[in-house]
């Protein structure tokens, strides 16, 4: 990954619909994101919503829909924030992501984490080990995914891995992503030890998550890079910002009510385009070079257009809605 560009903030949309969505709804939001001039469109990887008993929630598979978006969009980068490593075996996940990357012409990024929503796993028959074991499995999964992507077809011997939780035996026909050696990997969270250590070893971008001292989390990650001899400047710092943006108090209130939880509302940018612009500038001042605007209403395309027209032109280095290119 290229070094961080001082002063530039990459602006992305992160979709986590309150009640789930159909593919047609997801595509409409992705296309609105592309038209508005954002650099990327990401989606969460969840099968349940905030309320696990919400009968209106419509689950969709993250990577199936990203495969559709890979063909139905043309410019925006696409990815997950974040894929639960508990959902798919790492060899299969490496192949899925590589396939979607090829379908998109090299526009895919993999955000990946341990998985955290126990009720979601129970509801879909997915195993949910204890926290320490989930970190161990994520560590092995990252070694397998990056190892498979870096292996040349026909290599002798092929890629092998023997861990406590996963085993790969002499794979000579590895998945072949369009990006080499593989799509960018995003790892993030609030943990002070294992998360930054894993990110230092494998991630092209560290996401500081919500709540707490974001500046300190970036500093901990940078120190973790230095411990293993990696230049911290070669990795990105990103932040998530829930958004309810409008030009009238009624629009702001309506959009704020859709935000999934009180915790999210506490950390959200709720207000005018100028307020959102100021919040993005604050995150950039802390050290974020990438900001994901967390959107909950999949049908509210007007908010995306508003941010594209009234906010992106005032964010240094962000794409412009008129051209879709960076300044």
From TrEMBL:
InterPro entries: F420_OxRdatse_Rv1855c_pred, Luciferase-like_dom, Luciferase-like_sf, SsuD_RutA_monooxygenase. Residues 16-256 form the Luciferase-like domain. Keywords: Flavoprotein, FMN, Monooxygenase, Oxidoreductase. The keyword Magnesium does not apply. The keyword 4Fe-4S does not apply. Pfam families: Bac_luciferase. This is TIGR03560 family F420-dependent LLM class oxidoreductase. It comes from Saccharopolyspora mangrovi.
């Amino acid at each position: 990954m290229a070094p961080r560009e001082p002063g530039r903030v990459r602006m992305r949309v992160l979709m986590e619909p309150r009640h789930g969505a159909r593919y047609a709804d997801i595509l409409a939001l992705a296309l609105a994101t592309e038209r508005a001039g954002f650099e990327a469109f990401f989606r969460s990887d969840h099968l349940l919503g905030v309320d696990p008993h919400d009968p209106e929630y419509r689950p969709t598979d993250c990577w199936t829909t990203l495969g559709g978006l890979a063909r139905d969009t043309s410019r925006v980068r696409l990815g997950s924030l974040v894929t639960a490593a508990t959902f798919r075996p790492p060899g299969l996940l490496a192949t899925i992501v590589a396939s979607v990357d090829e379908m998109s012409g090299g526009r895919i990024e993999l955000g990946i984490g341990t998985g955290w929503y126990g009720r979601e796993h129970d509801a879909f028959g997915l195993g949910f080990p204890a926290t320490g074991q989930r970190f161990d499995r994520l560590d092995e999964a990252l070694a397998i995914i990056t190892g498979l992507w870096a292996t040349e077809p026909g290599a002798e011997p092929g890629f092998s891995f023997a861990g406590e939780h996963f085993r790969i035996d002499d794979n000579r026909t590895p998945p072949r992503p369009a990006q080499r050696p593989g799509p960018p990997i995003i790892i993030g969270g609030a943990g002070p030890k294992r998360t930054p250590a894993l990110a230092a070893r494998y991630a092209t971008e560290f996401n500081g998550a919500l709540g707490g001292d974001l500046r300190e989390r970036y500093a901990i990650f940078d120190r973790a890079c230095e411990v293993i001899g990696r230049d911290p400047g070669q990795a990105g710092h990103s932040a998530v910002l829930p958004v309810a943006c409008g030009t009238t108090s009624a629009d702001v209130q309506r959009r704020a009510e859709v935000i999934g939880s009180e915790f999210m509302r506490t950390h959200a940018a709720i207000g005018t385009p100028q307020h959102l612009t100021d919040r993005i500038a604050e995150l950039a001042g802390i050290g974020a070079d990438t900001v994901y605007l967390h959107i909950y209403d999949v049908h509210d395309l007007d908010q995306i257009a508003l941010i594209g027209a009234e906010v992106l032109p005032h964010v240094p280095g962000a794409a412009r809605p008129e051209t879709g290119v960076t300044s």
